[in-house]
Amino acid sequence: MNDSQPTLSVQNLETHFFTKEGVAKAVNGVSFDIAKGEIMGLVGESGSGKSVTGFSIIGLVDPPGEVVGGKVLFNGEDLVQAGEERMRQLRGNRVAMIFQDPMMTLNPVLRVDTQMIETVLAHDKSVSKDEARQRSRDALGQVGIPSPDERLKAYPHQFSGGMRQRVAIAIALLNKPDVIIADEPTTALDVTIQGQILYEAQKLCRETGTALIWITHDLAVVAGLADRISVMYAGRVVEQGKLDDVLDHPVHPYTVGLLGSVPGHNTRGQRLFQIPGMTPSLLKLPPGCAFQERCPRVDGACEADPGITHPVDGRNVRCFHPHLEEAAQ
């Protein structure tokens, strides 16, 4: 059930990287809301800014990167203005992140129980060590790890890649966070394990009310997982809406091309569509629409920033010439 106020509201977020070659606008005015228990897919190709958006939300952008503008309202509190001490209180507690590489979460020289118990006690001094152990055991069971009592005593290297990722997800769930940001956590896993983790992630969000932002380049992943989808291109969200609306009837020319290039969206025997040209450098973005040099619908209006419009059914699209005929079907 969704509350009237979003759990997380990202408003015009901007993150720049200050390099010798110039300023790279990795996140360039990104906005979206996510409600309690909702799952949102943040989709884009490599370099689109989706992962940097996740790191910006949770305050983990390292130099030369810097969040230079916008707001990240978490239950009304602006995390952009929160100090590092406050962010340490929130990270792993109210807001958690699951990384693509589980070893960014796991310490290879510590047993799993040590790491999980410390995660609980670091954020809740009222919990006993025995209670923290029980919570850790329950979390491992939640993500489908068999024999959790035995597995708690193991070291990370004694787990398979899929199991390590499950442990990382369990750690993210330990303190029942309000928001989890998952940065392509299943990319390196085989399809069977990936499917199991996606199912468990969806089930846990429904049961606990945790809001989940699932960052991925793979449209097939979000197709069976998310409620809504935000498509990123060159640091901006170009289309955002309900999952089925966007996948069945995309309206931004980039989303249309992206879906057209995915196997399964074409009749057997047809050539897959290829978007012409290359993604522009974030150091030298064209004025106006970043997609204009690759877009079949480009005209003089595209030299200005189209901003976010609302063409149909509350969907947001950043385009002067969206495929409204597709959305109307």
List keywords for this structure.
22% strand, 30% helix, Rossmann fold, single chain, seven-stranded mixed beta sheet, 329 residues, alpha/beta, globular, four-stranded antiparallel beta sheet
Question: How do the strands and helices of this protein lay out in sequence?
Answer:
Blueprint: E1 8-19, E2 22-34, E3 39-43, H1 50-58, E4 65-74, E5 77-78, H2 84-90, E6 95-98, H3 112-123, H4 129-142, H5 148-151, H6 161-173, E7 179-183, H7 191-208, E8 211-216, H8 219-223, E9 228-233, E10 236-242, H9 243-248, H10 253-260, E11 316-317, H11 324-327
Query: How many helical elements?
Result: 11
Let me know the number of strands: 11
Q: State the name of the first-level CATH class of the largest domain.
A: Alpha Beta
Going by CATH, the homologous superfamily of the largest domain would be P-loop containing nucleotide triphosphate hydrolases
Rg for CA atoms: 21 Å
Could you give a short account of the major beta sheet?
7 strands, mixed
Give the N-terminus to C-terminus distance in angstroms: 29 Å
